[in-house]
Amino acid sequence: MLDVQGLTIRYGDDTVVDGVDLFIDRGESVGLVGESGSGKSQSALAILGLLPREAAVSGSIEFDGRQILGAGERELDALRARRIGMVFQDSMQALNPYLRIGVQMRQIPLSHGLAKKGDADARVIEMLAKVGLPDPHRQFRAYPHELSGGMRQRVMLASALIAEPDLLIADEPTTALDVTVQAQILDLLEDIRDNTALLLITHDLGIVAGHCEHMIVLDKGRLVEQGQTTTLFAAPGHAHTETLLAAAPRVDRGDVPAAINGSTILSVSDVSVEYRDLRAVRDVSFAVREGETVAVVGESGSGKSSVVRAMLGLVPLSAGRVVYAGETLEGPVENRLKSHRRDLQLVFQDPVSALNPQMRVRSIVEEPLRVHERSLSASAREERVSEILEKVGLSKKYLQRFPHQLSGGQAQRVAIARSLILQPKVLVCDEAVAALDGSVRQQVLDMLREVQADTGLSIIFISHDLAVVRSISHRVVVMYLGKLVEAADSGSLFATPRHPYTQALLDSVPVPDPVVVPKRAPLRGEVPSPVNPPSGCVFHPRCPKTESKCSSKVPSLRDVEGSRVACHFPN
Amino acid sequence: MSGNRSIRITGGVLLAIAAVAVFGPWLSPHGFASVDYENILASPSLADMRFFGTDEHGRDLFVRTMMGVRVTLLVAIVASFVSLVIGVAYGAIAGYVGGRLDAAMMRFVDTLYALPFIFFVILLMGIFERNFLLIFVAIGAINWLDMARIVRGQTLSLREREFVEAARLTGVSTMRIVFRHIAPNLVGIVIVYVTLTIPQAILVESFLSYLGLGVQEPQTSLGTLVEAGVDLMESASWTLLLPAAVLALILMCFNFLGDGLRDKFDARHSQ
After folding, report:
1. In b/e form, how buried is each residue of A342-379, taking b as 16+ CB within 10 angstroms?
2. pTM of the predicted model, to two decimals?
3. Which domains does chain A have, with CATH numbers?
4. What is the ipTM of this complex?
């Protein structure tokens, strides 16, 4: 049905897609995978005829035997609405914030003569019900900002499928969503597709393994391999596919770091954090031992970032205590002892915004030394900077670079070097590898492990990605809506999750292995607003095990064979 | 016109005008205040090196216009510089410190905005008598308000950026954060704003001079020259048209330069 031959896209002298061939049959599902900059989104936009004018496109794109490359706007419009549907990553960008959902959706059947004026609304509401939106009559009249991210993505899906297209192109449709919601959307995609072919663009091999029959691997704009998903996973024919597969972490198997017995270096007890009327963190306690990596895991709104920010003194505590090396840390970071400040360091998620764009790598990395070791001579400082850069895997030639001249992985290494140059005792990584491509993420994680082995550094690893957590952390703390729901050694948590939420999180992570049958989305609904959390156990509205007791009585943390669990009915 | 080309062209024209203003009067055989009753209201001609003709006292209009350009540019640049220094320091401190200090500082700015500017200037003139310096003060006193607001807004958003948070965590002092981390990231927007402030200051100065509140004889500025030209508009139109054309050219160049710079910095932001 769709036949792309030798697709090449250039911007000036820059070739972003180089001779890509792609073939999709009716009803087939094809995964297009690659790291950032591989040209996967550009290829999809070319098929839709949505590339910016500066792009020089050559090759051939045939849809049902008709050449659509270079076709007129009018023809493309008709094609896009009736034959090819599309779903993008950012649903907020794709919806008009000033129009009600129903008003923008009814345009599609109306403007393409698919429904008469009187029938269009009924058709839209039927579609909204089909994508699993609760109370479709109400959503019909809602504005986009009134819906959650997951619900908006359902609306996008409904809009894309309302004309019953032959092909659906989905570009990272679940990347911005929480894992439990991602699982729901992927299921939905499977269920309502019927005869519509699917081109799914993703960086996540787990999604491809579970949802695509065929896969195509791109690398730097070139097609490196394509074939049956099961075949490619079993026996990758190209080195790049092999690298991608090796870098895809698995949540269901693999070695888990063994528990560490050391003395406690840092602990938070009964910590709460409030922002006006929002209680972001409620009575959370956990401790970190010397040389240990503790993962703090949760979906958006779980309070995982807030609790460590309060610990570091970046946001005020409203209750509780933070104890470091036997001393209570108080007040904002500016009021803390210099020695405490140098011992606790933070690495941010987005290295680009964490580095001052006007400073060179050298000044960025040496700034902590200028503050804490003023007596150091220029040459000694220079030596320390080179030393730490070497440790994070960067050569001297990067000293003079500005942040925008670095790749994402290099920038994150620079940020880590800045945090490590004072030889801290505790390093907090706030989603520090979430923005990195698979292979780069592996390298950065390896580097962190190495530093830990060398120096006995303790790491607090905040993440939403349990597959990554499994490979690096000794212990895991799971949070939901500001509450700690489970804390356990990695070994026992991944083998026998005690809390139903932990169980659901584990089941939601896509496994990069087509042999493993993907589990149905384990949870309904989405994370409620932390401004007005549910009564009793905050998890009870979504919990598969919920009973009447759960909505009235708050479960306290209790010990179940070495795990701390806040549930009335733990496994 | 692409950003870079407009910057190069308008920048070049402005430099040329400045060069002529500096060296022109010096090379011309005529003095700016020397009266020549033989040649009252002579029309422009190349022969005598009277490119712009003469005024009603027989003074060479080209030399006087160039003197006017000097004064006008000087007033504009100094006033902009004053507003730059006060505005950036004020805005950056209010924005970075935040809280009550920010509220107090910005309410003060709001109050100053409420003062009727012209009334303010006339009042100052009344108290201190006419003084060249007053014009700088008056223009600077108005322009820094805009600058302070813009810088404060930008600082507020920069303060939330993670590299500032990283610096706080490391223990970098507040002063060092403001000057090392915040200020360099303000440069783009400040440069753009200054190039757009200069023509505003020029206009205000011309306006004041036109009202007779500006530069005093025998000193002159473009505004004063235009005012004198208006009286002679019918008998000797060049005395109005030529200084006015120079003024318009300078204003246009600064506006285009500001637009070009803004495009350039915006493009870098969006990348």
Report:
1. bbbbbbbbbbbbbbbebbbbbebbbbbbebbeeeeeee
2. 0.81
3. 264-290+300-474 (3.40.50.300)
4. 0.75
